[in-house]
Design brief:
The complex is a heterodimer of chains A (608) and B (198). Chain A is α+β, with helices and mostly antiparallel strands. Helix content of chain A is 40%, strand content 26%. By secondary structure, chain B is mainly alpha-helical. The chains are: A alpha+beta (608), B mainly alpha (198).
Amino acid sequence: MSRIVGIDLGTTNSLVAHVEGGIPRVIPDAEGRALLPSIVAWTGNGVVVGEAARRQLARNSARTVYSVKRLMGRGYDDVKDELARLPFEVTPQAEVVSIRIGDRAVTPPEVSAHVLRALKQRAETYFGEPVEQAVITVPAYFNDAQRQATKDAGRIAGLEVLRIVNEPTAAALAYGLQKLSQGIIAVYDLGGGTFDISILRVKDGVFEVLATNGNTHLGGDDFDRAMVDWLLADVKSRHHVDLSGDAEALQEIRLGAEAAKCRLSFDERTVLTIPFEGFTYHRDISRAEVEALVGPLVAATLGPCRQALADASLRAEQVDEVVLVGGSTRMPLVQRRVEELFGRTPHSRMNPDEVVALGAAVQAQILAGGITDMLLLDVTPLSLGIETLGGIVSVLIARNTTIPTLAREHFTTSVDGQTTVDMHVLQGERELAKDNRSLARFDLAGIEPMPGGMPKIEVTFLIDANGILQVQARELRTGKAASIEVKPTYGLTEDQVEQMVEDSFTYAEADVEARLLIETQTEADTVLNHVERALRQARDIVGAEERAAIEAARAALRTARAGTDRDQIRELTTALNQVTAPLADRLMESAIKDAVTSKRADRLLENS
Amino acid sequence: MSDYFTVFGLPRKLGVDGEALQRRFYELSRQHHPDFHQGVDAERQAEVLDQSALVNRAYRALREPLARVEYLIALEEGREVREGATAKPKAPRELLEEMMEVQEALEEAKGEGLGGDAGTRLREERRRLEERYAAEATAVVGRTAEWDRLVDAGGDRRPLLEWFKQRLATRAYLRTVIGDLSDALGEREDQHVSYRRH
């Protein structure tokens, strides 16, 4: 079996990891960085991902997409309140959020695919071989559409997603490999955009999730927003300027707020300085001020914790260990609230930014057959039901049921000769269909005409180990499999994903082109630099004719370098190299002479 | 389809050793979980998925004493089993008087609001119903050993089965009323507190 990597596709940062010699490790990039900012930008030079995209965010905010995880598997109505706060433009479309980048529209799975592709390439560079299979983590409270969207993103990036794993459970696996104590473990995972709580029983290598709960729209991003609003009001009162409509200024404030928030996890006070046109904004911020701002948001994580405990039939004091995961748990306020709730000090012995990716790598290793004594038994976070008469939901699979699981339900026709039956599948905990998350409408077709009530159609709803629903149907009297047409309420159709996979090959080629151009330009820059230095050093040993020839070649390369004709740049680089070759030789000779002379001098000194 | 007792190699009895059941669940999971069957063909994968789902459902149905009784009733009656659907809420006659009082208190609350006596009265009614709700569960679990003795002796189990059914139906009814009272009081902690289940 080929190599399987573990990927944490985060709201703010993403990572890729693998197990090496029995130990999970994060795969760093060429500069040794573990975290890849989950930011994608469309620039003149093509698509840029990560730190490079982050650096140009303020300048190019309309074409830079961040926090796209919050839009995964969601419809326009779900996120329209939030969109006003994002600098990029979103097309009103019910089924899938679509982001407008110039004249191109991209969906959240496509944006995520760029992040995944960058991680895939990072791993391929590291291993020196193709990587095609991955385990990707998602928030435990992600619904079916959000999970499917994540799987789609993997496919678009050219990765076979062997498993979708819940982030808190992945963290538990990573700890488990380091010998987590046996007993009841609570994993409190507050990341950039999402919150999860999972309660597990760890025993004899089995990680049994007892209950999970959360909020897929609560995290560090929301803390930043509260701070941005507060800072905007402050700028307005002190400098009489309203910056709320200025996209670039907003991004500067957002990045400044985020940085200040992070510093305040370790210091009591910090200073925020942002230069704007005409004035410099300067603000002393205390930890207490930020805690007052985000207090209600942190408090909102406690309800789901209580609910998870209740669902696991446990009291807080029965929890043996509380583990903190996610960057936002670095905030002392979060740690205090968690400690109050569980009555014990939580810990984050493993790096809260990396532990989820490490856990994904552990799960990858389990799937590869490299670890056989660990088993993860996870649950479905939301109840699955179908709409019945009067818009009431009939629950088929209750939340916190161990997956894989299935439910069978019988349907029939109400009218003579009826050949199709439709059903509406939902996820959620409310009694009325309209209050729950619509997953899909299914049309059972091809039922043989019979008197009403005669057909007996058995429909199997299966939730697989990824927490994703599969539906099958058959007519029991004829034994024929009924055909099902699925109309997902949110998300991409099979055809759309297929198209994106194809497109990604085209783009991948374009990306390769862009990368090659940058490489050629860099090479030209290097040669130009060398020549300039050589001319300075060798002022005395260059004749007028030779100098004129070199200057002409330099000028030609500089002109070509500004363009995009890769072949021309390469040719002229070679030409400049050739015309300066005799000079280089002479310089080399004199350098050797110098070296030899100085070596002698060294020796003389040594012997003295 | 094999019944859940068979999955665990157990007789159709209500007394189950929880620890042993969990151990067996972990063993069966290690045998059947899809994690350990990667790279098999699609047909085999579907089988694995089915097996694994069966083990998980069986454990869920048997691990708690009350769920076990609900499952047993369905099994004895040869019905399709669906979690929580066994006991149709039914208003028991012996609760008629209490229900009339609850009704009165609700009417009163509608007129006067929850601030005064009506709120206090509703809360008091709810507390009594919650006690009753817990008592029903205790009563059912209290007679499970009797069921097992009847199985061993080959006695007539139908009257006890009927009694289990009535108790569970009463309990389901109480659950609905408690939920409604909490709604009326505006105190349903969360939209999805676990009244749905046990």
